[in-house]
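User: Let's play a game. I give you a shape written as tokens, and you guess the letters that built it. Ready? Here's round one.
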């Protein structure tokens, strides 16, 4: 439940704040939300050359973030 709440707030800040979200901001927030979801996941993610770039961007930091979550 907290993961669903925080991911929704991260991806849709206009629900909480009176702001306009353009497409660039939306793409950046989607990367942050995906990193947050991967950090809170208990399963291991196998990344390869065909993996999406948003997952590859923070792939080396995910183990560190997972230890913080634990």
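Assistant: Ready! My guess for every position:
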């Amino acid at each position: 439940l907290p993961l669903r709440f925080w991911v929704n707030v991260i991806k849709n800040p206009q629900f909480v704040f009176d702001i306009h979200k353009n497409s660039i901001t939306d793409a950046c927030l989607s990367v942050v939300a995906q990193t947050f979801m991967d950090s809170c996941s208990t399963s291991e993610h196998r990344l390869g050359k065909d993996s999406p770039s948003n997952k590859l961007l923070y792939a080396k930091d995910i183990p560190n973030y997972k230890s913080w979550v634990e």
